[in-house]
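Take a record:
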Amino acid sequence: MTCPEEEWSPEQRASYERECVREARDQLTRVLRSPREQRELKSVRLQGGYPETAIVVALWDGRFEKDVERSYPIWALEVFKGYRGVREPPNQVGMLITTWALGG
């Protein structure tokens, strides 16, 4: 979307959220496919509703033999706002979530 989120319809917001989840899942799946990787993706899901919607990433971390779950509030984190309030595209959101979820 090329306009500020305040101008989005509820359907546009929901579509953006779903696309961000898809991008995060796809990117995490690609990174964690390596045979050397000691983590396994369990799930990527939406939690809550606008404006508190978060993308929740659940991983099995074999290095510490435990489940890890991290939450990323996509409407509240300023880094996702982009220039002049225009949201970062879903692929950028997915890339940032992938980096953070894997400890980067």
